Amino acid sequence: xxxxxxxxxxxxxxxxxxxxxxxxxxxxxxxxxxxxxxxxxxxxxxxxxxxxxxxxxxxxxxxxxxxxxxxxxxxxxxxxxxxxxxxxxxxxxxxxxxxxxxxxxxxxxxxxxxxxxxxxxxxxxxxxxxxxxxxxxxxxxxxxxxxxxxxxxxxxxxxxxxxxxxxxxxxxxxxxxxxxxxxxxxxxxxxxxxxxxxxxxxxxxxxxxxxxxxxxxxxxxxxxxxxxxxxxxxxxxxxxxxxxxxxxxxxxxxxxxxxxxxxxxxxxxxxxx
Length: 273
Fold this sequence. Notes:
alpha/beta; D-Maltodextrin-Binding Protein, domain 2; 2 domains; about 20% strand; elongated
């Protein structure tokens, strides 16, 4: 049987415990709550010539849409086309050639309702900045002279810039002579690098690529009637699991702030109806 003193001590102990618990402001863990922000990942397969501009656009987009993470995959449009045909997980495709987009659309691989033309570009002849040929190479026809031993071109089977270059050469009726001197790049950036490093005397690339390097300069710009329009179509892939975010991205790329960046990099904007 407990004594009166024992009961008093027990009561004091219980009161002390209650006060201690009551003064503890540390919240109990709630396993149903999460501090993580929901994130959607969208993969954009884009022509290599878009790399610099898209890198600048990415933080602007993600500042406005913090719940969406962009993952880029840059390569030649032909390589990207093959990846998509082989089932690569892609949400948005931006091609540097209409034909590449047409090919996957014919196979039912894009949502045709989302397709639109985003940008245009130009084809230019470039030489190394420090080239001694600056005063004598001022026209595409100058590529046939003995002063040019090696010229870099994109691989015409897979690189749109290479296909456009062949059209330019054919228009000037110099394709046979120039192709005999050609080395081929796997994408337009490799062509640019060949010229920038001085490994070749000249190359044909997009205006935007020429503008991105301090180590090359433009010797001539191809007239528009010498090649097919250099148009960049964009579309959401049919199997994209993130169609809402993908469509939002396409809309953002058409906004003035995104278009301004494209223009700064030498692209020509297209106003869609």
